[in-house]
Fold this sequence. Notes:
By secondary structure, the chain is mainly β. The chain is built from 3 helices and 9 strands.
Amino acid sequence: PSRWRDAAAMRLAAALGRAVFLEGPFELTLGREAVLHIGGVRMPNPPGFAATALLTLGEAHARFDLFEALRGRLHVRSIEATDVHLWLERAADGRPSWASAQRSGPGSPRAAIEVGQIALHGLAVHYHDARSATRRSFDLDEVSATATRDDPLRLALRGRVDKQLAYAIAVEGGPLRLLQEGSAPWPFTLD
């Protein structure tokens, strides 16, 4: 299925509103629930930020409904990834690197991708604020989440701050469609 790598990257880019590059092996195991193994994923940062990437994944497995995908609706039942790195930056002018790109025109829809369960192992988050010269790093041993377009987000994290302070965090947030629409603040609670 490597010949579909570019088409899959374009579909992800349309859903996320930013460039996505699928790298490494691209293997598909067929069945009612298909499993896609991706050897690497890279999402570059927008121009003007110090880090070249916003997100990289060393390896990912996505389970999805094959028949729904053939009908043009990608419902990802689960994603599991390892060796995940996220670089979040705020530029001197206040622009965040993580804000999604603007849509091509007013009211232009993004492609719909539904995601069920997410499990990330070995997640490193790096934060840099150019205005205050603040730098932080968070190592997350494990992140698990359930996220769909219309249901509340549920997220659990375990890890360390600056490689020392252990923590556990639980987040419950609004539906992902609110983030995609970007028309109102996204509600969430944090424990």
